[in-house]
Amino acid sequence: MSETVYTIIRALLIIISLFFITKLLGKKQLSKLSFFEYIVGITVGDIAGSISMDSALNMKEGIISIIIWTSIPLIISFFSLRSKRFRDFVEGTPTIFIKNGNLIEEHLRKEKYSLDELLEQLRTKSIFRVEDIEFATLEANGELSVLLKKSKQPLLVEDMIDTPPVEKEVYSIIMDGKLNDKAMDKCKLSKKWVESALNKRGLLLEEVFLAQVDHNGTLTFDFYDDTKSESKS
């Protein structure tokens, strides 16, 4: 067998292996990668390229190395889905850069985000005035989410009827069937209040996938069981 044919066969086998590994990892790999997943992707690509081109390398050991590297994100995902604390540690948490039109400088320094970078991101969203922003948050995946003040948002029919209310932050007080103590502290809600709200609806904490509360105290639920229809207080 010629060296060229052997190289082609090795490359095809690597491509097929990477295809099935990508399918196994899921669609997240095709959209937004975490910092750790980005590192894994680069490393796996480098290993795959090396063993497909260098016939001196053992292909079996190369594929085993790829499998080991790609199993790490799967293990992390497994534990991340079961523990919010672990998920926050691995993936990070959102950071508020702008609140009520005011920059939070210490958060910018913490994330090593320059003012020029922030303003550039805002311009790509057609926002040129910081004071027009109610909230700007750097998400864990590096995306910048922006909520404009109500008076700066596109005009809707209901806005022509009622006086535009001031937008307030929405807090996720239950995540993955567990109370989010940090969110409850921010919105000044007690564990007893949440338990009472659940009892009124005949709900168990473990049944709730996500519960959010706004500044009016309105609760919105999303359940593990999608057949449940309860949504608001």
UniProtKB/TrEMBL annotation:
**How is this protein positioned relative to the membrane?**
Multi-pass membrane protein
Q: Where is the YetF-like N-terminal transmembrane domain?
A: 6-78
List membrane-spanning regions: 6-26, 33-51, 63-81
Chief subcellular location equals membrane
Q: Could you tell me where this protein is found in the cell? A: Cell membrane
This protein's superkingdom? Bacteria
Q: Which UniProt keywords apply?
A: Cell membrane, Membrane, Transmembrane, Transmembrane helix
Q: Which residues form the YetF C-terminal domain?
A: 82-214
A single cellular component GO annotation: plasma membrane
Q: Which InterPro entries does the UniProt record give?
A: DUF421, UPF0702_alpha/beta_dom_sf, YetF_N
Signal peptide positions are: none
Q: Is this entry keyworded Cell cycle?
A: no
Q: Which family does the record assign?
A: Belongs to the UPF0702 family.
Q: What is the protein name stated in its UniProt record? A: DUF421 domain-containing protein
Q: Which organism is it from?
A: Niallia nealsonii
